[in-house]
Amino acid sequence: MFYKTNGFKLCMAVLFGIFIFLLPRPEGTKFKVTGDTDQRILASVVDFFTLVPSGKIGGKIAGKIGGQADTQVYILKAKTPGSLEASVHYIEQRAKNLNLDKVTIDYVDGLPPKAKRFLSILAVLVILFVVEPIPLEITAVLIGVSLVVMQITDVKSAWAPYMHPVVIFIMCCLIFAIALDKAGLTKRLGYYIIKKAGNSITRFTFIIAIGLGLASSFMHDAAACAIGIVTMLPLMRAAGIEPHTNTAKFMMLSLPFGCSCGGMGSLIGGGRCMVSAAFLKEFTGVEITFFDWILYAMPAALITTPIAVFIVYLVFRPDPKYKLPEFDEDLGPMTVLEKKTIAIILLSFSLWLTKGLHGIDYSITGMLGVAALVLFKVLKWRDINDNLEWGTALFIFGGGISLGLAMGYSGAADYFANLFFPLIQGKGWLVLFIGVGVFGALVTNAMANVAAAALILPIVIPMAQLEGVNPVILALCLGMATSFAMLLVIGCPPNAIAYSYRYFKSSDLTKVGLVATPILLTVLVVVAAVWWNILGLI
Q1: Enclosing H/E stretch for 32
Q2: In the chain, fewer beta carbons within 10 Å around the N or the C end?
């Protein structure tokens, strides 16, 4: 059928983007003026604008986000919305007439033109990521291209995220998985699990996905997912499980979903947790220690991890005809190669765990580990070159970071935050918690979860303070809710890593994610309400 062709899908995506682009752009009624210490602009536009009192939520948040003193930032509100004078262009013209070249005027509740262009790009990309009319690697490359063509950013800023430190870190995780596979350690892990699971595909998948999911609390979720996949793949091939079957989808999607949920259990499980804790300390002076985070978040990780795997099982029921092979082979004691591999990778993990002490970025210590694997002849360069999914690491995840950063500097993230959060103001911690959780879980699918946490936290923490809500609650909420990046392949590293092996389509991930996300968010809210009440946090 014509409507199933890639050409038709591509045309529909482009037409949808054009439709978004042609929609009326909300100018808004409030505008932030930064750098006008004498409020000369206010005096010149007083006939058309009023000053928003500094005690109002919007003005206070604007001041906090801008990082400026209160005397340098103020909010203007239009008296007659919709008129020619009630626009940012009118204020900019007045600033130009007053020779205030260093003053900046930003939208508060309106949508900047740059953000409008970004949203039209995002509309196209989301469809391309879901229906895959062209390879996802090419779609991801087009992110950088479109950001420059649509004049949202310059060339350097568009391409730099494709070699972001997080991308290098993901490459390290994938290379470690290659080393474990070559040394035979994944074979040992598979044999061990088979002894526990027998020849049942379902029991095997539940054990490895939940086990590595919970292990993700103390190692990065991307590393755990990569290790699980290279353990699983040889057994899938031996059992004759073909790509794109329900059995393959169940096995390959259970790992990223389980690891994403488990990663919320501690500060090192994912960058989103560390970003949340760092922003909380910066804005409030309150520090969540490593063990505090475990105390507050681990119960949710313990509960949501098996639930996530069970949801994948319900959506993609495995075919009972597939059985794992019987292994009578005695693997014997560990070889020198296996011991060297374990020692190097454990040393790398220990450097990741102690980053707070030495301050060296994960990408640097990870690449030191990769160099050690080659120097000690665990791997050869050809092993890395032939087995590493370069397109996933560099393009898909790098493109996701580039898209996420663009959502911030285009003004789109601020627009949606100001549109969304007034709906939940003044309704208590629970409504605020649910609102932040839902918003964070949705936004993190269009950008890296680290970037999502970094963009949203500066808004919600000041709001929590003004609402009388403990800001620790929202920092924890956002770090945990952004673990549910289960709608798009670019949502988080485990998704991209699992997709790189081509055992499922991106639409398969979206299908199960649409079921899992609301269920897991509900579980998170219930666990937080009960457990944090016991701890006295709420």
Answers
A1: strand 30-34
A2: N
- Quick one: which of 310, 292, 253 has its CA closest to 492? 253
Q: Phi-psi category of 285—alpha, beta or left, where left has phi over 0 and alpha has psi -120 to 50?
A: left
- Number of Cβ atoms within 10 Å of the Cβ of 217: 27
Strand partners, 74: 33
Q: Please, are residues 217 and 298 in contact by the beta-carbon 8 Å criterion?
A: yes
Residue pair 195/207 in contact (Cβ under 8 Å)? The answer is no
What are the tens digits of pLDDT across the range 81-101? 888 888 999 999 999 999 988
Q: Which residues of 84-102 are buried (b: 16+ CB within 10 A; e: fewer)?
A: ebbbbebbbebbeeeebee
Taking only the tens place, the pLDDT of each residue in 274-332 is 778 877 887 788 888 778 888 999 999 999 999 999 999 999 999 988 988 776 666 77
Cα 181 to Cα 17: distance, rounded to the nearest angstrom: 43
d(CA 262, CA 524): 12
Q: Which two tokens stand for residue 392?
A: 């996933």
Closest CA to 488 of 515, 512, 506: 506
The Cα–Cα gap between 235 and 239 comes to 6
Of 333, 334, 339, the closest CA to residue 377 belongs to 339
Measured CA to CA, the distance from residue 401 to residue 389 in angstroms comes to 18
Cβ atoms 444, 452 nearer than 8 A: yes
Amino acid at 496: A
The C-alpha atoms of residue 296 and residue 370 are separated, in whole angstroms, by 34
From residue 376, give the alpha-carbon distance in Å to each of 139, 341, 373, 447, 484: 38, 9, 5, 37, 38
Q: Side chain identity at 290, as an amino acid letter?
A: F
d(CA 497, CA 257): 12
Find out whether 266 and 293 touch, Cβ atoms under 8 Å: yes
Q: How confident is the model at residue 146 (pLDDT cuts 50, 70, 90)?
A: very high
Neighbours of 379 (CB within 10 A): 22
Any idea how long the chain is? Answer: 538
> pTM of the prediction?
0.71
**One-character DSSP codes across 99-167:** T-TT-EEEESSS--HHHHHHHHHHHHHHHHHHH-SS-HHHHHHHHHHHHHHTTSS-HHHHHGGGG-HHH
How far is residue 425 CA from its own chain's centroid? 25
